[in-house]
Amino acid sequence: MSVDSGASSMSRLLKLAHKFNCFYLSGLKSGECRPFIVEGFQVGLIRPDVMKQLLKYPEVFRVTSGYVELNPAFRDYEERTAKVDYVLRELRSDKAFIALKGWRDECYDVKAEFHTESLLRMDRSATCLFGIRNYGVDINGYVRHPKLGLCIWLQQRSSTKQTWPDKWDNMVGGGLSVGHSILETAHKEAMEEASIPAELLKNLISAGCVSFYFESERGLFPNTEFVFDLELPLEFVPQNADGEVQKFELLTAAQCIERILTPDFKTTSAPVTLDFLIRHGFVSAENEPYYNMIMELLHVPLQTIYSNQRSIKENGQVASYNI
Amino acid sequence: MSVDSGASSMSRLLKLAHKFNCFYLSGLKSGECRPFIVEGFQVGLIRPDVMKQLLKYPEVFRVTSGYVELNPAFRDYEERTAKVDYVLRELRSDKAFIALKGWRDECYDVKAEFHTESLLRMDRSATCLFGIRNYGVDINGYVRHPKLGLCIWLQQRSSTKQTWPDKWDNMVGGGLSVGHSILETAHKEAMEEASIPAELLKNLISAGCVSFYFESERGLFPNTEFVFDLELPLEFVPQNADGEVQKFELLTAAQCIERILTPDFKTTSAPVTLDFLIRHGFVSAENEPYYNMIMELLHVPLQTIYSNQRSIKENGQVASYNI
């Protein structure tokens, strides 16, 4: 008897769950990354290539053997934001990182936990350099087809998008930018990306969230996606309004499973689609031997990874790190 | 600014998620328990009180400072089962453990992972002494009420049940016993516990699974529940057929949230109900500040807790433990 652990004996869906959790399953354990501390709280993880660049800015980043800390002398949210922004703009003009090529002029909050106060804001293109937790919103649009059963609307991303151009993606999705709530972002993206009228958005149902930890050449992605389901009328066809989508396609559940398994699907959107297919019974313990493993890999303990390493701040000094 | 971490500042639902994960969040970290190894695979965790009793049976259990191992000389599934059963029956007549008072004459499989071969079977009352992973099936029965919206059927457990008597519970639930598949167990329990006819069971939808790690005076419960949703006609009323349920009650979603928060609800069934309330939008990021934390606590990484500690078996000897 043997326990399957080699990639060859995995199911295709388990391999996919490993792919979008490549950092959780291997990078994290390599021990190469150091916690990024702001105001005594761990808010990120920093890879060696990024650490090397940050060493050039000792007045902003304190790099020790155990962690990287934002200068605790910075007084407040605005000062922290400005100092980091200055460094990032310089690194961008130095072409130090691929990630910064995609500068967005749109900021993400940097927080210890989702429900806690923001410590600073940072251009969204840069958060992956610091392993800052990212939060997004996704809408699974579907119809109940009289002949084909439950069918799912997917979008193909525009070829001009800075990240994942031309890849297939969920019907609607977007990152949670500074100052926007989850529901507000869902509504805004639904209108901009798919022209879904307010009347239909009344049927939007909150359906949980997925968490995973991906890594690419750009950086680290500890992502949590807040997931919504939206049943649409058979006759409704999504229409893009902001130029970020090249087309929409309605797929059967079986076709959708095949699509997320292709390299043409955006890796970091696959968890949302897979979670939808599981919640609606299309992927189940009957057809997927690694079902419960996959469920765990759709909800990896990001809070534990970061909060276990939370520091204790005493008298303005970082006193200890429990890593 | 501060990160909420004390119990006083938690939401009631986060406190509940901590309650059904009391072992995951504290016991596990105390380091008091030792891995239980069978055929080179970690299949459980053993508390000091259990270890003390097992020391009396050195021909069956090898207790070392790092782990407890079932004698690797036992040849096969039947021999391992018989040797452990002999010890358990003796411990039962010695009244060594509360858990064994509830002897069931019904066995659970002991495996390294859900999809792998069973290494032995063990009376279900005893698995919590060894921290063996438990698998169960739960059905959320609900109706779409024209005035009250989505309503949920709950059962009150019989006062004669060996575990959690009189407590409120999901409409249908049961453990996965040796030789029964998930779907088979769901159908069997639905008929026995709630007299749901085969015709209605055609609407059963697989909807994921929840994993949590609970501890009680009886022992350790690393549980995975395979979850099904079943929409029922308004006029259908569940009727118990096996004497294990004293009554059924139909609750609105708001009442259901309140019910799972009372001490009258079976703690280890609450994750299933909470997951249902989240998937159907009744608990969302709009009304629950710790929403994403709760989602992670409904899917704790049991596979990692156990498989990280898997041993490498070489030449019949346990070669190393990566704990």
Automatic annotation (TrEMBL), chains A, B:
InterPro entries: DUF4743, NUDIX_hydrolase-like_dom_sf, NUDIX_hydrolase_dom. It comes from the Eukaryota. SUPFAM superfamilies: Nudix. Gene3D superfamilies: Nucleoside Triphosphate Pyrophosphohydrolase. One of its GO terms (molecular function) is 8-oxo-dGDP phosphatase activity. It holds the Pfam family NUDIX. Residues 134-275 form the Nudix hydrolase domain. This is Nudix hydrolase domain-containing protein. It comes from Ignelater luminosus (Cucubano).
